[in-house]
Amino acid sequence: MKNKQKPKIAFFSFTCCEGCQLQALSCEDELPDVLSLVDIVNFREAIDEKRDDYEIAFIEGSVSRTQEIEEVKKIREKAKIVVALGACSSTGGLNCLKNRFPMEEVKKIVYGDKAKKYKHLDTIPARPIDAVIPVDYYIHGCPITKSEFLHVLKSLLLGKKPEIPNYPVCVDCKLAGNICVFEKGMTCVGTVTRAGCSAICITYGCICWGCRGLIDNPNIEAHEETLKRYGLTAEGALSKFDLYGGWERHGEKKQ
Amino acid sequence: MEYRTLPKKRIASFVTGLLKEFKVYGPVKKDGFPMYGEITSPKDLYLLHTPTHLSPKQYLFPQKETLLRFKSGANPPPLSPSGGGQGEDIAPVVEAENQVLFGVHSCDIHALRLLDRVFAYGPPDANYLRRREKTAIIGVDCMPDKYCFCKSVNTTTADSGFDLFLHDIGSGFIVEIGTQKGKALLHKHTKSKKTTAKEIRKIVEFKNKKAELFVAKINAEASTLPLIYSGSYFSPVWEKIGKICYGCGSCNHVCPTCYCFDVRDEIKANLTEGERYRVWDACLLEDFAKVAGGHSFRKTRAERLRHRFNRKFQYQVDKFGGLFCVGCGRCIRTCLVNINIAEVTNELIEESNRRR
Ligand code: SF4
Ligand code: SF4
Ligand code: SF4
Ligand code: SF4
Ligand code: SF4
Q1: Alpha helices of B213-272 — where are they, by DSSP H?
Q2: pLDDT at B216
Q3: Helix or strand or coil: residue B30?
Q4: pTM of the shown model
């Protein structure tokens, strides 16, 4: 096949740790096959070349500066398909934690007294990219899983709709044969969090923090009650959702 | 009935013998809780008398299994659903090994008998049936925990559905022979003794003792439950439990008689080969009853709960002739919002009594 026939894809990165791009790059086994099927025209982590004639754009990271709003909009104009890559981009992710504090305070904590002097450090409340542009598909997780990234990419190449789970992590937990953390005297938010991660955190002895965001129709009230029954205060129960769920729960209200 | 007696210390050598021939699965301790797992040495066995968190159905109907592999000979690769098609190469996959399920409780033996009927119904399910053929089931006596209600649905004992059944009599086990296959296994892998009449009486004593210990129960004859359920379609109970349910499907996944699955295709990165697999599905999940176009015929959690409970006490009974709840209590144990199938059934019984 000639190169010009291959679909062109691009990767973009905004406010984040770029961990999701690294996950995508670490699909060593599949990369040669993938590269024979697509042209990557923009990928800061992997190639120097930069072109903007892409069809599929994978966008990683939250929008947290005014300038990024324009950049994201430009990508939307050029791309046929926009995929949000990872929690930062899909749900706002960890970045939204800062939205709970006044921006001046956040800046000072991170950059110290010099913060005021630097105009380029000015930020707006962090938000998922779909707060700015329409998004076609979401790859959830902090970080994303390789298999889901490949599934979405392969589906798009085949012209199929990717299957992204709309059931809670409890399903993955049962499929993995885990003992529920509530049995072990801990609590988690897997009951309302979108599955697709194979419940990896629970399998390895931790709890689910909810990094993949909420399912479409979560029973949050029921889970607040459960958390209270397991010893958390009302406030403690609510704060369980805030590590990754800041944007979904508060949106711009609290800023 | 044929019995043999096995001194306790012989269990280890029996298991060691089985391990030479079979994969052996049985209750093990996981994070301190009883769970099924692979037994690689007799020491792994945790013949505890209360139920495991997941049922043994996973060894006949695994969480995820490949059904077929396909290769599309098309070149260039099929970049659209209609692009492939030439030179397709499809091979069915049936993965089944000789295996022993060791330490299965009577409720789960009843459940497996139901699954045997389900997977043989209509077009026979090759994957399940092949695996079933290659499986030996060794049952063991159990004791109820606070959720077990097998006594209410007549599954406290099993008189078939196993190859061997171990009755604990303290000093050892009385081995009840269920099939010729079981008998051969016992004789091949261990030495057992003739069972005395006194020992047989101990089985009865154990049964009687066990019968006293049930906390959870259903307040009506098992045979009346299908009728009670058929009159309870409009009960307010469904709304009440629907409100607190997560729709998490855990009750389905731990249930030894839930058997729904979803079939999916996954293609490799070269876009020319792939596999079709099935994975456990659950009728409590929001998207389960969604059909093409996004319409769902059971939108609310209340409707989905009503559906699941009716599958246990009415619909399946009509089709397969037996209650599909074996009273193992697992769905109650797993439910974080305490939806209790025995208590809900009791509420329906009360409502039905009031209607009369
Ligand atoms: S989602 Fe997590 S791993 Fe991915 S870029 Fe954001 S912070 Fe990093
Ligand atoms: S550990 Fe969390 S995710 Fe797993 S079953 Fe329990 S509540 Fe669900
Ligand atoms: S278990 Fe929860 S926190 Fe862990 S990866 Fe899955 S969704 Fe994220
Ligand atoms: S009944 Fe309980 S276990 Fe079943 S889906 Fe509802 S919340 Fe989950
Ligand atoms: S419905 Fe509940 S109690 Fe009945 S067999 Fe299934 S898991 Fe056990």
Answers
A1: 225-230, 237-244, 250-254
A2: 96
A3: strand
A4: 0.92
